[in-house]
Specification:
Allosteric enzyme that catalyzes the rate-limiting step in glycogen catabolism, the phosphorolytic cleavage of glycogen to produce glucose-1-phosphate, and plays a central role in maintaining cellular and organismal glucose homeostasis. This is Alpha-1,4 glucan phosphorylase. The chain has 831 residues and is of the alpha/beta class. It contains 34 helices and 22 strands. The strands form 5 sheets. Strands 5-8-9-2-1-10-11-15-16 form a 9-stranded mixed beta sheet. A hairpin with a 2-residue loop joins strand 3 (166-170) and strand 4 (173-177). Helix 2 (23-36) packs across helix 3 (47-76), helix 8 (254-262) packs antiparallel against helix 9 and helix 23 packs parallel to helix 24 (611-628). The structure holds N-(methoxycarbonyl)-beta-D-glucopyranosylamine.
Length: 831
């Protein structure tokens, strides 16, 4: 980075260009921010100082639109979507905001003229890792689309001080490092110390009579903690609308501190402060299985309580009386994590705002909608009644009361069916009594949706069958989508440019169906050549990046075969591994065979307590070490594990993939969204009929998709009949030899026991039917290799995959929510 140039005098009208979009204004803004915010001049500025100055310069330009949006929304009294989510994974903001402001080129030139390395500045930003995987990233894509579609909205969540851990690989094992993402400051957030709400825990409830002699309930808490708002502006693409991501930080309540201080217990007061702050300290790093920890329940209530109190405040500030609360707001629950909001709104309406049960319930059940994201039983949240009662005694009473009203209705509808009543109850009574959060979410919401067509069907016919029998109209499908701004324009500028040139416009960025215009050119050899060049360039970039980080060198001519997602048995990274071992054995047996070179690339984190997932990571790295160092293989196949897969690092992966692995056991992956990101960037999919794969295949055409494996229906049939994985092991000689090779100790320096827990589980239980789908998977992979030999044909399929991805824009998903579920309208803010 050359910092040698001295600052040129900029003869501009400061006032006029304070937030101007011209190159001159950007340069001036940057130098001002470097000086007045970072307190630096260019000669001594660190790369981080430069990043901060660039971020503030960008933020200044967003704030103007933000203020305008807030004013307009207020005067319009516009209906507002509140998206409640325990996780948001926005990814680095700078590049995305420049794209949405439409000033990438100007900013690049401005940086160049100041002698700065723009890519290095962008790369300085820390990942805001406030989520685990698909669920958190979906929330971020939805925020981008809500703003782009000009729908007033607020994303509510937790400002975790430590987000998802950073993953490093040591001796092949995952090692977790704490993610101190706020260490160097966060230029995107604006603290709102005055937007602060008390959150109550513990204690007891008591009855009393109010002035009118009515019997009321009062909650006397044992602990009060404050939630303080931190706002991040979310700018739409090419529009003036800026919505709000409002995250809550826990702080000790001042009144409590004071009490301790007055009686002289200074240390006690400080201790209380530390304890209060633990609530927003760290994200639970479990993707699907629930941790079931007390602190987790406290976190959920914490952000939900702050958010509902904030909405009530906004209601009073804009429209007024609470009667129209469900007209002013719609609250979308992102999974069950925020479903306590239902009980909390009831409590606030009744205990704090004097409403009777019926009025409060009428508002509550009209305001909430709930999205289910998983059918996996281990991910369905329940809380023991005793813990619930200890932490939230008033809410338990309310849950009981909701349940009483609800079960009375069920009994009337299904006379004498007490078994059904037992299944539908908000309280599980078998064994330790537990509160079923999913049942609470369904009962308290007017709309419930799944996240892909297949998933939504399974929601209706399996998970919530009883509820669907009772309320058929309550259930919907909204297939997930992802934002093309982040995953195409930001991640893959080369492809984006090529698409715009080919289509003659960049309208596809806001209207992804326009990608269809590519189809007319799918046979055009000129486009083929450029398409191929773009892909090869991305592969070279990724290869260099991976070489730097892992030491493994990939051949850009090889098929880049990528599986990047959380490590989970149901996602079947080990099925992928069995294919790799098969390729290895084939090459060892006939070294001269004409195999298409492949680079197998994995990325993904394992929950720190998930032993089997961590063992899978170890096995990937162990197989990689042997194959990559086998001189006989000579680089024909290579295996690499990309450490610390997250939004930021993922941006290197999507553009470079040729093949996208979407190989979960059918019926287990609710939707998947990585599948969409890869396909949008021209990768072909090898996948099962699971989640959104089904719809991706429908859209791109079955001839452009590598399908294998059992359908969800076949899976449940096999399970009903009794599944015996050892029969596959005994019957299929190649499968047996692949598993035996793992057990031989070849990948573990002679240790024959290391991977036994994994291989034994496959042969004896195999809950995700890896062995049942093995043969079909290998055969399908052979088709992939053959198809790749025909470059023209492959490139054509790649172009068609991109051309037909329109449906999977999160803009389409948000339009469906707005139209069918939320009934919200755009409120355009002029530029
Ligand atoms: C699902 O596993 C889906 C995302 C977003 C995940 C994945 O298939 O794409 O949600 N579910 O809808 C989840 O995290 C807690 O459940």
């Amino acid at each position: 980075m050359s910092m040698a140039q001295s600052p040129e005098p900029l003869d501009v009208d400061r006032e006029r260009t304070r937030t101007g979009m011209s190159k001159t204004a950007l340069k001036q803004g940057f130098l001002d921010n470097l000086f007045y915010i970072q307190g630096r001049f260019r000669e001594v500025a660190t790369p981080h100082d430069l990043y901060m100055a660039a971020a503030y310069t960008t933020r200044d330009r967003i704030l103007e639109r933000w203020i305008k949006s807030a004013q307009r929304y207020k005067t319009n009294q516009s209906r507002t979507v509140c998206y409640l989510s325990a996780e948001f994974l926005p990814g680095p903001h700078l590049a995305n905001n420049l794209v949405n402001l439409g000033i990438v080129e100007t900013a690049t030139e401005a940086a160049h003229e100041l002698g700065l390395d723009f890519d290095a500045i962008i790369a300085e930003e820390a990942e805001p890792g406030l989520g685990n995987g698909g669920l958190g990233r979906l929330a971020a894509c939805f925020m981008d689309s809500l703003s782009t579609l000009q729908i007033p909205s607020i994303g509510y969540g937790i400002r975790y001080e430590f987000g998802i851990f950073d993953q490093t690989i040591e001796d092949g094992w995952q090692v977790e490092k704490s993610d101190n993402w706020l260490r160097n400051g966060n230029p995107w957030e604006i603290p709102r110390p005055k937007i602060r709400f008390p959150v109550l825990y513990g204690g007891y409830t008591e009855q009393y009579r109010d002035h009118d002699g009515r019997s009321r309930t009062r909650w006397v808490p044992a602990q009060i903690i404050d939630g303080v708002a931190y706002d991040t502006p979310i700018l739409g693409y090419g529009v003036g609308n800026v919505n709000l991501l409002r995250l809550w930080k826990a702080e000790a309540s001042e009144s409590f501190d004071f009490q301790a201080f007055n009686v002289g217990d200074y240390y006690g007061a400080v201790h209380a402060k530390i304890e209060a702050e633990t609530i927003s300290k760290v994200l639970y790093p479990n993707d699907e299985p629930e941790a079931g920890k007390e602190l987790r329940l406290k976190q959920q209530f914490f952000f939900v309580s702050c958010s509902i109190q904030d909405m009530i405040r906004l209601q009073f500030n804009t429209v007024g009386p609470l009667d129209s609360f469900a007209e002013k707001f719609v609250i979308q629950l992102n999974d069950t994590h925020p479903s306590l909001a239902i009980a909390e709104l009831m409590r606030l309406l009744m205990d704090e705002h004097d409403m009777d049960w019926d009025r409060a319930w009428d508002i509550t059940h009209r305001v909430f909608c709930y999205t289910n994201h998983t059918l996996l039983p281990e991910a369905l949240e329940t809380w023991s009644v005793s813990l619930f009662e200890r932490l939230l005694p008033r809410h338990l009473e309310i849950v009981y009361e909701i349940n009483r009203h609800f079960l009375d209705e069920v009994r009337v509808h299904f006379l004498g069916d007490e078994d059904r009543v037992r299944r539908m109850s908000l309280i599980a009574e078998d064994g330790e009594r537990r509160v079923r959060m999913a049942n609470l979410a369904v009962v308290g919401s007017r709309a419930v949706n799944g996240v892909a067509a297949l998933h939504s069907e399974l929601v209706k016919t399996t998970l919530f069958k009883d509820f669907h029998d009772f309320w058929p109209d309550r259930f919907h499908n909204v297939t997930n989508g992802v934002t093309p701004r982040r995953f195409m324009v930001v991640a893959n500028p080369r492809l984006s440019r090529l698409i715009s040139e080919t289509c003659g416009s960049d309208d596809w960025i806001r209207d992804l169906d326009r990608l269809r215009d590519l189809e007319a050119h799918a046979m055009d050899s000129g486009l083929h050549e450029r398409w191929h060049e773009v892909k090869i360039a991305a592969k070279r970039d990724l290869a260099a990046w991976l070489k730097h980080r892992t030491g493994v060198l990939l051949d850009p001519e090889a098929i880049f075969d990528v599986q990047a997602k959380r490590i989970h048995e149901y996602k079947r990274q080990h099925l992928n591994l069995l294919h790799i071992i098969r390729c290895y054995q084939r090459l060892k047996q006939s070294p001269n065979q004409d195999m298409v070179p492949r680079a197998f690339i994995f990325g993904g984190k394992a929950a720190p307590g998930y032993f089997m997932a961590k063992l899978i990571i170890k096995l990937i790295n162990a197989v990689a070490e042997v194959i990559n160092n086998d001189p006989q293989i000579n680089g024909f196949i290579r295996v690499v594990f990309m450490p610390d897969f997250n939004v930021k690092n993922g941006q290197h992966l999507y553009p470079a993939a040729n093949l996208s692995e979407q190989i979960s056991l059918a019926g287990k992956e609710a939707s998947g969204t990585g599948n969409m990101k890869f396909s949008m960037n021209g990768a072909l999919t090898i996948g099962t009929l699971d989640g959104a794969n089904v719809e991706i295949r429908e859209e791109v055409g079955k001839e452009n998709f590598f399908l294998f494996g059992m359908s969800a229906e076949e899976v449940s049939q096999r399970q009903r009949e009794g599944y015996h994985p050892w029969e596959h092991y005994a019957k299929d000689a190649e499968l047996k030899s692949d598993i035996d090779l793992i057990n031989s100790g070849l990948f573990s320096h002679g240790d024959t026991q290391l991977f036994r827990p994994l291989t034994d589980r496959l042969v004896n239980q195999d809950p995700f039917m890896v062995l049942a789908d093995y043969r079909a998977y290998i055969a399908c992979q052979d088709h992939v290799a053959e198809a790749y030999r025909d470059h023209r044909h492959w490139t054509r399929m790649s172009i068609l995959n991109v051309a037909r991805m329109g449906k999977f824009s999160s803009d389409r998903a948000i339009r469906e929510y707005a139209e069918h579920i939320w009934r919200t309208e755009p409120h355009p803010i002029d530029l």
